[in-house]
Amino acid sequence: MPIRHVIFALFVCFIWGVNFTVLKVGLLRLDPYLFGFLRFSIVLVLLLPWLKIVPGEMMKLFILGNLIGGFQFALIFLGMDMTDHVSAMSVVVQMNIPITLIMAHFFLGERMSYWRSFGVIISFLGVVIITLEPEILDEGIVVFIILTATALYSTGVILMRKITKIPVFQTQAWISFYSVPVFIFMTLVFEKNQLSQLISLDYIGILMVLYTSILSTIVGYGGVNYLLRQYPVTLISPFMVSVPVFATIGSVIFLNEVVTPKFILGAVVTLSGLGIIHYRDWLLKRRTKVIANEGS
Predict the structure, then answer these.
(1) Fewer CB within 10 Å, N side or C side of the chain?
(2) Nearest alpha carbon to residue 124 among 252, 277, 231
(3) 205: which residues sit within 8 A by CB, 6+ positions away?
(4) Tell me: the pLDDT tens digits for 52-103?
(5) Contact 275/125 with Cβ under 8 angstroms?
(6) What phi and psi, each to the nearest 5 degrees, are found at residue 193?
(7) What is the span of the domain harbouring residue 161?
(8) Per-residue pLDDT tens for 234-261?
(9) Helices 140-160 and 72-82, interaxial angle, to 10°?
(10) How far apart are the first and last CA of the chain?
């Protein structure tokens, strides 16, 4: 994996990590489903030129749009609105890694090398260390909601690997197209005073919506879609364990959350696992180039 793609993957993780704080700040001003409606409406408008029919793939796009779009984010927004521990929930989200890897093994036939498996285990061990914080155990219903959302996302990732012929922005445009009706229905049924919330929305709330729409959705998910078209799920998923590190940094700075020694230990272990995975891949790639040069 080229270093530019490694850096790009980490940049996407940084965007998503900070997005937890951004989302929480936004949800202090808007109800969760109204927030989701605004987010995906903006994305749909920006990506409207890519909203074109794809013969033979529309059913897959419909399922994908509901899995990693409307229903997944409806649960994520609801959970983040309910929680008082942003950094803790950012860790729970990382359960999509083992779920995705298991699905990739059974449905895509993507096998992991011993080194990559070892790196994933080390990374996940770091997540487990962080998960042992009592804050997570205190919010059982929120944990369940977030875990359900991660299961939907993991299923969507597997499906995404099967529609690689569709351009990234075109895929994202259809995901937004199918997500908007979900949030319209949810906000009309479960929320009220939508107009007054929009009228009273301040510039910070507007910036939060724009961040989640443009950076988190278009750049973040568009970037992951691009990477998944270049590399197997088993190589891309481990990057996601760095998201709670960035999320906690953001929550400490902007939400005044406290970093514990247990979290610091878990973060170090997590990043060490990522280092093992990609250092080994870099060595193998370098060795292959050396052998090819010697043969020529």
Answers:
(1) C
(2) 277
(3) 25, 26, 29, 30
(4) 998 888 888 898 888 888 899 999 999 999 988 888 788 778 777 667 767 7
(5) no
(6) 60, 35
(7) 3-295
(8) 677 677 777 888 888 888 888 888 877 8
(9) 150
(10) 23
